[in-house]
């Protein structure tokens, strides 16, 4: 059964654009990681002011393998040499879930 890992980011209002731009130029390495199934960056609209980085994985092992390797490279940030830029997020929390049920639209 798949697992969902959500990184919850507290982003000060003036840093939102910076965060979204960083994701727009993200490493795109996660797509080629074994066991990776889905990614979404979710911008808060109502009920919370935290951004969610939604990821879904075939199993816990796949996520752990990504965390120990490619994840680190994908979080160097900014690109273009120089110092590592200051994180746009002021804080983060990792949520973990097991997928117990799922559905997709019926296709004709
Ligand atoms: C330590 C706290 C973390 C912060 C502040 C953070 C923030 C960011 C930022 C700003 C990016 C855009 C690229 C960059 O600038 O480096 C990014 C990429 C990403 N983050 Fe995080 N992140 C954290 C940890 C995590 C964790 C634990 C996960 C697991 C769900 C995660 C999932 C991702 C994914 C999937 C990408 C895209 C990587 C790619 O395209 O290959 N992040 N993160």
Automatic annotation (TrEMBL):
InterPro entries with a match to the protein in the record: ABM_dom, Dimeric_a/b-barrel, Heme-degrading_MO
GO molecular function terms attached to this record: monooxygenase activity
Keywords in alphabetical order: Monooxygenase, Oxidoreductase
Listed Pfam families: ABM
Domain annotation ABM: ranges: 3-99
Domain of life: Bacteria
Record's keyword annotation contains Oxidoreductase: yes
Name of the protein this chain belongs to: Antibiotic biosynthesis monooxygenase
């Amino acid at each position: 059964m798949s697992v969902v890992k959500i990184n919850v980011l507290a982003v000060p209002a003036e840093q939102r654009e910076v965060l979204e731009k960083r994701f727009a130029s993200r490493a795109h390495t996660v797509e080629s990681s074994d066991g990776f199934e889905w990614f979404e960056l979710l911008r808060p609209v109502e009920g919370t002011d935290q951004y969610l980085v939604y990821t879904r994985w075939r199993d816990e092992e796949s996520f752990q393998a990504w965390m120990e390797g490619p994840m680190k490279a994908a979080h160097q940030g900014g690109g273009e040499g120089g110092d590592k830029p200051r994180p746009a997020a002021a804080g983060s929390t990792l949520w973990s879930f097991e997928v117990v049920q799922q559905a997709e639209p019926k296709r004709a």
